[in-house]
Every structure is written in C-alpha cells, then in structure tokens.
Design brief:
Elements (H helix, E strand, L loop, with lengths): L4 E7 L3 E6 L4 E5 L15 H4 L3 E3 L2 E3 L5 E2 L1 H7 L1 E2 L1
Antiparallel strand pairs: 1-2, 2-3, 3-7, 4-5, 5-6
Length: about 80
C-alpha cells in the first residue's frame, strides 16, 4: 500500500511536488494527463494551481482528483 499524500505544490509547468506520509517527496508530470477528458479542465493554469490535499489524495474540484498510488509509483523521487 502506498502512503497518503500529506502536502502538494502545483507548479506552473503542470507538474506536482508531493510529500507523502512516509516523508518521501516526488515530482509528477501532469502534462500527458491534461489531454484526457477527466483532466481537461486543468489545462487552465489557474485551475491546475488550485491543487490541494484531501483525505490523502490530491484534488482540484469535487470531480477531479489524482490517486496517491499514481503519484507515488510514477513520480520521480526528489
């Protein structure tokens, strides 16, 4: 089981820097995902920059979130 996200910072280049409950930090590139319909609203920079943590997951709106598994397993360790 991957650890929960405890902190996230959205960057202008459409990447995320996440801190996990185990203390690890990872960077995740969201650019390839923005073209998917579920994430397309995030193409607007102001929307993307509103990323925050709720219940161990990165969320933007009630309908858009990103699994901590994806962030952890596909993110690049910092």
């Amino acid at each position: 089981m991957t650890p929960d996200v405890v902190q996230v910072k959205a960057l202008r280049d459409f990447s995320l820097e996440a801190v996990f409950a185990n203390g690890e930090r990872r960077r995740f590139d969201m650019k390839p995902y923005i073209s998917y319909p579920a994430f397309s609203p995030l193409a607007e920079t102001n929307c993307f920059l509103k990323a925050h943590v709720a219940n161990g997951t990165v969320v933007w709106t009630d309908e858009i979130d990103l699994s901590p598994d994806t962030l952890y397993l596909r993110g690049v360790p910092l």
